[in-house]
Amino acid sequence: MGETKYIFVTGGVASSLGKGIISSSIGKLLQARGYNVTIQKFDPYINIDPGTLNPYEHGECYVTVDGHEADLDLGHYERFLGIQTTKANNITTGRIYKSVIDKERRGDYLGKTIQVIPHITDEIKRNVKLLGSKYKFDFVITEIGGTVGDIESLPYLESIRQLKWEMGRNALCVHLTYVPYLAAAGELKTKPTQHSVKELQSVGIQPDILVLRTEHELSTNLKKKVALFCNVDENAVVQSIDMPTIYEVPLRMQEQGLDVTILQKMGLPVGETPTLGPWRDFLDRRHKATEKVKIGLVGKYDLQDAYKSILEALSQAATYNDRKADIHFINSEKLTDANVEEQIKEMDGIIICPGFGQRGIEGKFVAIKYARTHNVPTFGICLGMQCIAIEFARNVLGYTDANSREMDEKTPHNVIDIMEEQKAITNMGGTMRLGAYECILDQHSKTFEAYKSEHIQERHRHRYEFNNDYKQEYEKAGMKCAGINPESDLVEIIEIPTLKWFIGVQFHPEYSSTVLKPHPLFLSFIKAAIDK
Ligand code: GLN
After folding, report:
1. Among candidates 150, 131, 167, 166, which has minimal Cα distance to 14?
2. What is the mean pLDDT of residues 297-320?
3. Which of 163, 350, 353, 426 sits in a 20 to 30 Å window from 223, CA-based?
């Protein structure tokens, strides 16, 4: 196509309007027209990455194949586009400053005073363009975290201003705002949008396209008014109304010609409108599925975003099994032998969630014991897998004090132990076992049945591991080590073959489940849950 085109997605009025979904939808529509697209996120906080952030601060931490701990929006990019993102797709202010400061120490700027403009902005611009120049993408969509008007966002906006100036038609800004409905007046209000656009204009950026988030249908008159006040073409004012599923958003954007407007503004041929066939089939199937499959999510965070990828993977797998995922959060901190039955009895299957630290861990053992002795389909992910191993050691192998070294450093039965290479590590940030690793499956296992392949690759994020000293004992007592890392011999998958579906995985399969390619383990887990 020639030169890479850059689309910047900014947001105003409020946070949480769904910039990630809009960026993903734009990406999807351009990709459907045959373009090679990637999406990146720039986060204006000082942390180097979100790896050390609490889920209450920032939701789930997503992990890329190359082992980067990333913002959860990268999960949306991968689920919508079916692409794989990398470390270069998520940049924070912390990383920008760190790299500028490292260069300063090396002497790269010898003699100069280092300033936000041009040094920080140049580094931001370099990172904006990195993916495009390295991999020859047709489109690079850059989502800027935070909202216009934040102090932290300013260097990013200044960089966009410069890039738009330098690139002309090859760069464009999509600004997402909110149109509130005042019930007392019975009116939708455009003033916050006008102010937000003014804020952008005050730093020298004229948005090319406005996406208005709203809970009510916007009239043509209202859109005309916004266009007039904000110096934007009428056809470049698009509404984004609340949808029953985020996967509807690309279709609603396509109906309003958002992709066509982008192509025209960038001087590209429009051609035929892609049908988005498989995407529509997925949505049809999702809408038609009325029967529910009830899944209990046993974890400690009563917070949607903390388990974002797991929720998406479950709902995708449910759709492909023609069911509606009915997901219930089960707080592991409150689970006891006395109340476990009433909480899990109704469930068709349970997920034992990933996590760190002692809080809520005993409740996970309670849930696992109940599920194991009542043959409830159970899927343990990362810490969840470790908990399955510990519960088995305590209640089947008879080591009542079995534990993970993470929870009890002095446990005499450390069935989950710290990895050798982790022992010397003192820094917390970015030092876990991270990213995709190979795993070889036992051909006589449920996991193999699901994957239908012996060699798999899955993403990891943990410091602790199944302790191979106990492997034989486990296998003798009926727990199969169904997946092994060929290089390190680490056990990555355990399952109890005599039960209907009882599998724990040391990795995070949820990160690689996408709309058009649901994850085989989630598909097979949901199928087993339905059969229950
Ligand atoms: N806390 C465990 C470990 O570090 C599991 C991590 C996780 O669930 N992601 O090994």
Report:
1. 150
2. 94
3. 163
